[in-house]
């Protein structure tokens, strides 16, 4: 099946050559999502919970634009800059996945902009081919 590029309304221009999401064979692949506004400025500087909420809302927009919901998420790759933010990030994360949780991993690393505290990449199976 051919792939379909997913760009929700209001998306900014990416910093690098990628798109917010791709749908192929009923699977949505959401690019690594940072707490950026449409001009690629970091939002909620210093607040890991607010940044996580912003990232997950952005991911939700990509999945919904592809025809899915957050309950379709099967895997998340989470990148954080400091383990001290882990609890705050998890608290917000749990709000978006209240039932059965998706599989995931979480690592500490540097991110593309120093004020960004969290980045999440997602896979969702929406059961709908492109």
From TrEMBL:
Keywords: Hydrolase
Gene3D superfamilies xrefs: RutC-like
Catalytic reaction annotation: (Z)-3-aminoacrylate + H2O + H(+) = 3-oxopropanoate + NH4(+)
EC number(s) per entry: 3.5.-.-
UniProt KW Hydrolase keyword: yes
One MF term in the entry's GO annotations: deaminase activity
Pfam family, one: Ribonuc_L-PSP
GO biological process: nitrogen utilization; uracil catabolic process
GO cellular component terms, semicolon-separated: cytosol
Record NCBIfam families: RutC (TIGR03610)
Sequence similarity: Belongs to the RutC family.
Functional description taken from the UniProt entry: Involved in pyrimidine catabolism. Catalyzes the deamination of 3-aminoacrylate to malonic semialdehyde, a reaction that can also occur spontaneously. RutC may facilitate the reaction and modulate the metabolic fitness, rather than catalyzing essential functions.
Identification of the protein by name: 3-aminoacrylate deaminase RutC
Gene name tied to this protein: rutC
């Amino acid at each position: 099946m051919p792939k379909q590029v997913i760009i929700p309304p209001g998306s900014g221009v990416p910093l690098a050559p990628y798109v917010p999401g791709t749908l192929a064979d009923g699977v949505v692949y959401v690019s690594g999502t940072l707490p950026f506004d449409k001009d690629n400025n970091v939002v909620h500087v210093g607040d890991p919970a607010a940044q996580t909420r912003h990232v997950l809302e952005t991911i939700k927009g990509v999945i919904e634009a592809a025809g899915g919901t957050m309950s379709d998420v099967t895997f998340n790759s989470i990148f954080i800059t400091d383990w001290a933010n882990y609890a705050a990030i998890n608290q917000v994360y749990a709000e978006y996945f209240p039932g059965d949780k998706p599989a995931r991993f979480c690592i500490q690393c540097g991110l593309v902009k120093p004020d960004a505290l969290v980045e999440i990449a997602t896979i969702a199976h929406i059961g709908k081919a492109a």
